[in-house]
Amino acid sequence: MHILDRYILKNHLGPYMFGLAIITFIFVMDFIFRYLDLFIGKGVAFLVVLEFFILSLGHMFALIIPMAVMPATLMAFGQLASENEVTALKASGISLYRMLWPVVAASAVLTMVLVYYQNWVLPESNHKLMNLMMDIGKMKPTLEIKENIFSEAIDGYTILVREKDDRTGTIKDIQIFERKKGGMPTTIVAERGTMTFREEENVLRFELEEGEIHEMPDPRDINTYRKTHFKHFTLNIKDTDRTLKRSDRKHRGDREMSSGMMKARVREIEQSMELIRGYMHQVAVKHTVRKLGTVFPELADPAPDDEAKPPPQEPKTPKKSSTRRNRPAELVLNTLENENNVLQSNISQIHRYGVEIHKKYSIPFSCIIFVLLGAPLAIRSGKKGMTMSIGFSIFFFLIYYIFLISGEKLADRKYIEPWIAMWLPNIILFVTAALLIYGTVRETRTIDWDKFKLLKRWRGNSL
Fold first, then answer.
1. What are phi and psi of 376, to 5 degrees?
2. Domain-by-domain residue ranges, the chain?
């Protein structure tokens, strides 16, 4: 490696680690404020909290690593410019393109590492994090049971409460369904009550008032159904301890899958869509042939001899005749509409997978874009202080993030293609970086505001 390359990369290493530490600290503080109440309320052990935090770093680093590139580039090239080293290098015949070469090469290596990280490390980290979050959610049922939401946090029970006061434990408009193997669930409804968790007894207790119990011990015999009214009823649900019980969830969301997994899933969806389209075509053709047979009897299939009887007389009431004639058409239209809704749902799912696939490559590629954008900005504002450079860094990253999130929403709603949504921020910033680099190399303004002043003056004189 050339001594110049080592010198430029050495100037980038310190600022990059500093930027990485600062941005990581911001993300960690956000994590603490977001999940602190959850851990305190559920009494999660420290080692479990530490595991949760380490797994959360997975999706944090997917954004932190590219975000730290631009501040590092701004600080490194800003320092070179403020100490007149950029001017000395230019005087020695070394162009900005040559200065950028080692940093672009390093960012390309970082891009490849991030692509591997996005496809192999991050999906597994997200999958384990989601499993852990669901397991933690089942540790304390009183916190998991929320207003107007069916909760299945307790095995064997489905619970719905309309109003709930976490401070006093009072609940109103309660519905409890006790699921039983091979039988009808027992339903308990009550107007009001209290819900408390007794740690020493490992019991979740419901003190219910003014309600009913509906049960049918033998689901095959309706005579066994009975309804019981009560003024006061106590329900103790045992074995609802707060210990963390690990589970292995097989299902994976789009952010828990690699690009290869998602592409395979897209192929499966496309095959099912072809079957649906074939079925829709078959239904439409059969209906069309049937309609033509009523207009042109010679096109209809001949009836067998033993069934060749005159058709029964239709009722003379016009409304009934019209209804009977239109009923097959309505059934066909309903069938086609339902299948088309399934197709649209599959297309939306394909778009969501497409967004996640392209995101796994577009975000890592932004490392190269931020280097190309940060170097000319730092050189142009190096002598004016780092405040302007950091401001530019925040400004352009906000633009990138807004375009990324907006594009994801538009692609999920099928307004634009997924690849356009995910790569448009890179394209826009790349064009901006190219213009800045060209103007910096030629030592000209990227936008010549003097020409706009002359144009404005000329228009004023002509008027």
1. -65, -35
2. 141-238, 255-303+317-354
